[in-house]
Amino acid sequence: VGAMDRQVVERCVSERFDCLDWSSTAVAADAAYVRGDFSGFRALGVRKVDALLSILRRGAHVLLSDVDCVWSADPTPLVRGDVAGFSSFAHADLISATDCMDVDADFDTGCYAETTDKNTGVLAIRATEAGIAAMKEWRVRLAVAQKDEQDQTTFMDLIDGNGRGHRWGMSPPQRSEWQGFALEWCD
């Protein structure tokens, strides 16, 4: 457990869970309800990536699940590439889930290739040069993000090969078109 606040650390101790105490890294921007504040949410994202990097730099691979994720089965065989159809996962430096809510579509048509956001709450990162480099770049993008960019949008721009601050490099008509698409997609 990576504990980002004192209450979680205390709970881990009381439940006798091992945890990475990352509570001392809190900043004012992420001390309140961060989902309603983009800068606070990004600050929490930077701390999350810093925690990941501290583990990866020790040579340990990471399978990350945010607290709002539940595994219906042990993900280890999948991440190791031991599941039929997923053997390439054994060689991946970074594996990401999607926010696709249709398992059949994700498997058959590949929601991953669509505009569906990659879910940054479910990641597998290997402690390889490329895995660490990806996390370092994601951290930079979170730290310099603008306006309503957050962990998923900066991650998607990284994965899609877009420049830093890509979404704010759009022209006003492009941005307006993208916002219209996003509003319609989210309904």
Please explain how this structure is put together.
By secondary structure, the chain is of the alpha+beta class. The protein is built from seven helices and five strands. The chain has a three-stranded antiparallel β-sheet, covered by helices on one side. It has a two-stranded parallel ribbon with strand order 1-2. Helix 1 links the parallel strand 1 and strand 2 (20-21). It is globular, with a radius of gyration of 17 Å.
Write a concise synopsis of the structure shown:
The protein has 7 helices and 5 strands, in the order E-H-E-H-E-H-E-H-E-H-H-H. The protein is of the alpha+beta class. The two termini are 34 Å apart.
Question: Order of helices and strands, N to C?
Answer: EHEHEHEHEHHH
Q: Helicity, in percent? A: 40-55%
Q: What is the terminal-to-terminal distance?
A: 34 Å
Strand content: 5-15%
Strand runs, count? 5
Low-confidence stretches: none
Describe the protein's topology:
Layout: E1 2-3, H1 6-15, E2 20-21, H2 38-56, E3 62-65, H3 76-79, E4 94-98, H4 103-108, E5 118-125, H5 129-144, H6 151-159, H7 172-186
Parallel strand pairs: 1-2
Antiparallel strand pairs: 3-5, 4-5
Structural descriptors:
187 residues; alpha+beta; three-stranded antiparallel sheet; two-stranded parallel ribbon; 7 helices; 5 strands; globular
